[in-house]
Amino acid sequence: MDGLNIPLNHILLVSSLLFAIGMMGLMIRRNIIFILMSLEVMLNSAALAFVAAGAHWGQPDGQIVFMLILTVAAAEVAVGLGLVLQVQKRFKTLDMDHANRMRG
Amino acid sequence: MRELIWLIPLIPLLSSVTLMLAGSRLPRLMIGIAGVGSVGFAALLTLGTGINFMANPEPFQLTLWTWMQVGSFAPGVAFYFDGLTLVMMSVITGVGFLIHLFSTEFMERDESYARYFAYLNMFVAAMLVLVMADNLLLLYLGWEGVGVCSYLLVGFWYQNSANGQAARKAFIVTRIGDTAMALGLFLLFTELGTLDIQAMVGIANETWQVGDNVALIACLLLLAGAVGKSAQLPLHTWLPDAMAGPTPVSALIHAATMVTAGVYLIARTHGLFLLAPEAMMAVAVIGIATTLMAAFTALMQSDIKRILAYSTISQIGYMFLALGVGAWTAGIFHLMTHAFFKALLFLGSGAIIHCLHHEHNIFKMGGLRTRMPVTFWSFMIGSAALAALPMTSGFFSKDQILLQAYQMPGMGPWLWLAGLLGALLTAVYSFRLVFVVFFGAAKTEPDKDTGWRMALPLTVLCGLSLIGGYFIIPVQDVFPVGSGDHPAHWVEYVSISVPLFGVLLAYLIFHTGQLKVDSLVNSRIGQTLRQFWLSGWGIDWLYDRLFVRPYYALSGMLKSEPVDAIYGLIVAINQTFNHWLSAAQTGRMRWYIVSMVFGLVVLLTLALQISPEVL
User: Fold this and answer.
1) Of B474, B536, B145, the residue nearest B333 (C-alpha)
2) Nearest CB to B597 within list A23, A96, A97
3) What is the pLDDT of residue A2?
4) Closest Cβ–Cβ partner in B586, B590, B597 for A96
5) Pick among 1.10.10.10, 1.10.580.10, 3.40.50.150, 1.10.287.3510: CATH of A8-101
6) What is residue B484's predicted lDDT score, i.e. its pLDDT?
7) Could you give the CA distance from residue B394 to residue B461 in angstroms, rounded to a whole number?
8) Domain locations in chain A?
9) In DSSP terms, which residues pair with A31 in a beta bridge?
10) Contact B582/A99, CB-based, under 8 Å?
11) CB within 8 Å: A104 and B594
């Protein structure tokens, strides 16, 4: 296999970076759309790690799990956007800090 | 006739139930007819049965049904009828009828007219069950029944909390005796295997020797029950307070019938007491001590009903003395004559109270002799009988008791002397009452005179108090015959003259005032004694300190439920933690995410610290 030979460590570093960015977004953002986008970033970071690992070991499993993650992400976005609509309808805002009725 | 004796308690009971259920809807006349008529009917039936019995004086037993059957324990609802039962039933229904009739006028203005007669009829029914019972368990049913009715009637005017207090006191103090009596019944049943009185006494005579310890304990337990019911030392404190009830109730329950139930119980089980001479001695000693204590107290009271209450305690003391020295017939005889003259005195005082705007203080009365002649003569005759002046009914019975007490071997003469002192005091306090209330200057005007429904019972009871001493009660087959010999004549003369001397004393002190006792009374020691006797020898005070207050203190301590504090602590800890943890549930999603991430970081760090080889 020729072409670019990027060491696995670099890819994993990028993946971790993406995961951290996504998680920070999840924690910091208040708008529910940005939260969903952060989630998407985190999922993709995990998918990237799978693909890289699969390529590294010469196994097809990584790519198969990538397909699974793709499907899960699509489903999650479908449900998530439905929730976004509901939140907008009920609270007239997308700020998740206002949707705090279930406090103890 | 004999098969119909079950009707005698049933009729008042039916009337009582009817009045309870429908009393508020019946007109007053109907209530009166039902209340008085039922007891009158019972009295007629008793009379018929009595005539039948006198013609053929054979005791008989009537079993209605078996009450319950548990193994060998099968008490029946069964009645036993002999001379003693007849005497008691005659007193209960006869005097009871007169008192019911009196009540119709005494209570005519009361709004709870039906309730009054319902209770009073129920009392008569329960009392009849008590004296007719063939076994001790049925007797106990009647015993408790009269206790409940006494409670209800003492607290009849329940709007006044003091009356409720008095009712509770009467109930609780007698309960102490009743508990002892129940223990006595358990003991008798375990030892003898039956509670049928006649069979039980027979078995007891075969099982126990005279002086047996078990017999002694059983008799003492029965005696404790009798002491509670009959208001003897040391359980007498409820009776003076029980005067809070309507006066006819005091006459019926707290003078003529219920308080003599203890005397009846001991007389009925005399076969057991004969096996325990120490118990009989205890009966005599309690009797004479109570007689003296109550007589001194009665001397100092100023409330007309309290004087009569203490005098009742004192007279029942005489009956106990008679029972204790084995003068069974004399004791029952005194029970009967006492029922006559004490009911007369109580009804007389009821008439005074009724006509004098509910005045109880004798020193606010006075000069009633000409204004209320019927009541005056009632009191004269009743007091004469109470003081045992010659030829009155009380004379015959009390004289018998004193003479037989004198003949008792051992401490007989001492009992006789103490009894004489009691008789002297009785004469003084009863005629003190007469002179203060009926002679001298009038202080309160009566607003009315007694009507015929009051005058008739008073007149009949006057007659009975006068001639009751000539009755011969048919108990010769019930009790063992005494020795029959008489003590020396001088004993008899002294016994007769002492009450007369007492009346003379009362006359000189309270009527003419020739005998000055003021300096004696006002001296230091006189004042102290006066206070001491006025308070009933401080026994109420003593019980208050000894039992009532510690009990209240204990219940005050337990009111906050200290045992529950342990469980309360567990609850409090749980609630605190719950409070803390629920504070973490803010409802903000970002807070949850941060917490999760933080937790994850901590956990991962820990896991890597512990086992770095995972990497």
Assistant:
1) B474
2) A23
3) 53
4) B590
5) 1.10.287.3510
6) 62
7) 13
8) 8-101
9) A95
10) no
11) no
